[in-house]
Amino acid sequence: MKPTVYEGTMASAILVTGGAGYVGSHTVASILERETAPDFEIVVVDNLTNAYRAEGHKKPEAIRIIEELTNKKISFYELDLSDKQGLSKIFEKHSIECVIHFAALKAVGESVQKPLEYYQANITGTCTLLEVMRSYGVFKLVYSSSCTVYGEPERLPIDEGHETGRGLTSPYGKSKYFCEEIMKDLCTSDQRWKIISLRYFNPVGAHRSGRIGEDPAGIPNNLMPFIAQVAVGRLPELMVFGNDYPTVDGTGVRDYIHVEDLADGHVKAVRLFQQPGFSGFHAVNLGTGTGYSVLQMIAAFKSASGRDIPYRIVGRRAGDIAANYADVSLSHRLLAWRATRTLEDMCADTWRWQSNNPQGFKSS
Ligand SMILES: NC(=O)c1ccc[n+]([C@@H]2O[C@H](COP(=O)([O-])OP(=O)(O)OC[C@H]3O[C@@H](n4cnc5c(N)ncnc54)[C@H](O)[C@@H]3O)[C@@H](O)[C@H]2O)c1
Fold first, then answer.
1. How far apart are CA 353 and CA 208, in angstroms?
2. What are the two backbone dihedrals, phi and then psi, of residue 13, each rounded to the nearest 5 degrees?
3. 168 C-alpha to center of ligand 1: Å?
4. CATH T-level topology, domain 13-363
5. CB 3.0–4.6 Å: which of 30, 121, 140, 272 could bond 98 by disulfide?
6. How confident is the model over 234-275, as pLDDT tens digits?
């Protein structure tokens, strides 16, 4: 028989915080595409600070489209994680078995300007969630962490044994590190907790349907959405920060991972909760193990889209590192997961999403 994502009680629910956002929505899609249990449900909580809901609709666009694509219903609550009472009501109403926690603010530069807002949303929000989980006897959590917790790499590829927390420059990166530390302490204090912290490398790409994808508000912070917006004519040119790094062509190298592979990694993490004897805190890298430079990304996108990508080399950006890519052996061993999609897939899927939806979800 095909394994379901979650073989819990009859009416099991997975709570997905931030499920209307980029990685969260693709994970919700991936779970629903695989889940076969009849009474299983997905419950999404999102305050819509970084997700779009069209006028007159109850659910954000990403959620509405996933319902269309999968022909399954998703329970949606517009709620901020700091609303402990509201969150408790959701735990009263649904039979929640485990939580996948995406909700956070994520713009590194903005976090330097607004540290309190970032600590409030990312750390206090996480503590509130953990408190409510504990009071309802829910001890299984998959957490969205980041390779940012490693700071400047001492070795490459970076494995999970690499030190974390040293030399972190942004409140965003620190918030991810602090949350991991809080979760480790929690697991030490109470053996019932099972927490998997997934350290993402650089998520890119879009659902293969081209109907959901990354939809950054304002000027994108990340390379791929920036390239895509240049290709579609929304932005005039790309700025490449530095071409004098000790890398293959002087530009920064990162480990890009297709968001659908990343989403599948969450499905595998949820399945791991069912393994007898599994408990405690586990940090796992999700990447491909291969790095590509900025110029290699531009070339790949140009070929996938057939569009020219005008770019200009400018000086290095403070805080950027030369290269970063993951040691992915633990994800293979522990999660039985590996990324299967190629750089061509990442570019083709991003382009399908961007060219079908030049203004993001507002176009759909
Ligand atoms: N995308 C990346 O490059 C990347 C890399 C590493 C880690 N992460 C982490 O993955 C998670 C998801 O990232 P994403 O790219 O999908 O971001 P996103 O902004 O698209 O999604 C986050 C969602 O959470 C919601 N949200 C934010 N604060 C909230 C709060 N206090 N209460 C309720 N909802 C709230 C937003 O409205 C949004 O829909 C984040 O925790 C992020 O830090 C992302």
1. 8
2. -125, 145
3. 19
4. Rossmann fold (3.40.50)
5. 140
6. 999 999 999 999 999 999 999 999 999 999 999 999 999 999
